[in-house]
Every structure is written in C-alpha cells, then in structure tokens.
Amino acid sequence: MDDCDSPCSPHGNALPKALIRSDIWFADGNIVLIADSAAFKVHHGQLERHSEVFRDLFSVPQPVDQSLVDGCPSVELYDRPTDLYHLLIALYDGIYFQKHIAADFVAIAAVLRLSTKYFIEHLRERCIARLAIDWPISLPEWDRREHDGTDSEGRYNPREIFPHPILMLKLAHELNLDTFLPSAFYDLSRYGPSKILTGTRGPPPIFASSTTVLDV
C-alpha cells in the first residue's frame, strides 16, 4: 500500500529482514498484516466485511514494485502484536472468551481496544457487555458479582474469576470507560497495601521461541 494514513504504513523497501510468523497464517490468505515483527496472513475481504477502516485502507492502489511477504502484499499496523492476535481470533472464530475466568481480561481488553480503533462495533459491544458483568454499576449487580465469586462450598475466591482491578483502571483510563471506575476503585480498596504495590502480571508472549521466522 502507498500513501496510507495512520494507523498503518507501507513496508516498501523498509521491510525488516525477518518477520515472526504467527499462528494466524492462512494458506489462501491474500494480505499480510504486520505488527512490530509479527506477521499475520489473513483475508482482506474478512477485514473489510467488519471494518470500514480496513475497507478504506485496502482501497488504496498498490504500487507494482511493492515487496511481498509469502506472495502477498503487506501492511504495517501500529498495534501490539498480542492485541492484533486477539482481534483476528475474535473476527474469525467469534468472541472466544466464553469461560468466566480472570485470564479472559487480556483478550477482552485487546479486542475492545482494536474494535474501538477500527470501528468494529459488534465486537466492541460484546466486550463492553462482558466488562459490565465483571464491573457492575448497581448494588444488585455487585451483589450478584459477589455471589459469582463464591463457589458451591461457600468459599469466596473472586480472584480466579475477576481480573485485578488495576488492569480495569488502566483500561478505563486508556479508553475513557468512566462507567467502570467506581466498582474497580471499590474492589481495589479491598486489597492490602502490599498487594496494591505488587500490582499484577502482564500477559504472556503469544510467540514461542520456536516460532517460524520469515525471510523477506
């Protein structure tokens, strides 16, 4: 692609010497998205179908001498590789964080972040609905949340189901999700000072050390 405005840029002669091939690599794909050094071979029709931003992006004429990756044109996106990975999984497989566990938050935040950026409204709405379950705005819904954090034997263990409130506070600040601030701050107030200072772990990397490297 050339003359492409943010959020992407053409590779052209600036392509890195090596790219890491992600697990999202369709043999019949016709576009390679690159985030940092991670490459995703997908179908531009699938992206255009859900996002007017991608539709406008792919309507830009391609130069005849454009560098190809695995035989396909490539576009660099200024997104975190993990975020793009989760967004593409959500687009191809549907919303896939079905189990209500704290670890879901990484995928929810990633899909929400990029569905907002790329105007994919149906994914954004589902992410917001899920966050509303974890971070309710009414007392009855908070009581329901407390009940959900109690197992069948009466043990209260919400940390396996709900993410650390610091994660929600950070996401709320990033995406202006003020609705969820009261419940997140209240939940954080129930942590001891040492746990607040310790914070929480970041998401694990999506690429293993054995991931395929592409020469381009």
TrEMBL record:
Top-level taxon in the UniProt lineage: Eukaryota
Residues in BTB domain copies: 29-94
Residue stretches spanning the membrane: none
InterPro entries: BTB/POZ_dom, SKP1/BTB/POZ_sf
SUPFAM superfamilies for this protein: POZ domain
PROSITE patterns linked: BTB
Entry protein name: BTB domain-containing protein
Lineage: Eukaryota, Fungi, Dikarya, Basidiomycota, Agaricomycotina
